[in-house]
Specification:
The protein is 10% helix and 57% strand. It is mostly beta strands.
């Protein structure tokens, strides 16, 4: 049984250092921390088997303090976390990740639960999930 490596870059373009991120592979949490302003690289190696898997990215700790809205309701600023440079075994799959991921959230408690496509930015507390199988190259070939 071989190993597969997942990696990505998390970017916080705001001045806030208290936006939290968790990464899970199936039922194993492999990263949990606040993302400071700037860039954080995430890396996780796991055993490759012939099975279905779920990769989850969870944004947490976002509050109204992270968003500035004018008196007339216009969005002036918002803290976002960007997920970029997504790779499995050094194969960049950003576009495939975006096509096959679902972002579940409820607008930080101000709206209904929704599931929508993920385009790289986490702006609401919620979960991005990618379901894939290993061996990864087989999933990649089937979904290209």
């Amino acid at each position: 049984m071989g190993k597969t490596e997942f990696s990505c870059t998390i970017e916080n373009n705001s001045d806030f250092n208290n936006l939290g991120i968790e990464f899970w592979l199936d039922s194993t949490k492999f990263f949990d921390g606040n993302i400071p302003a700037g860039i954080v690289d995430i890396l996780h190696e796991f055993n490759e088997d012939e099975a279905d898997h779920s990769l989850k990215i969870i944004l947490k700790n976002k509050t109204d303090d992270h968003t500035t809205i004018s008196d007339d309701g216009q969005l002036l600023s918002d803290a976002l976390i960007s997920v970029k440079n997504i790779k499995f075994d050094n194969i960049k799959i950003d576009q495939l990740f975006f096509e096959h991921s679902i972002y579940s959230h409820n607008f930080n408690g101000t709206g209904p639960n929704v599931e929508e496509k993920f385009y790289g930015n986490l702006g609401c507390n919620g979960v991005v999930e990618l379901k894939f199988c290993t061996p990864f190259y087989m999933w990649l070939m089937e979904n290209m």
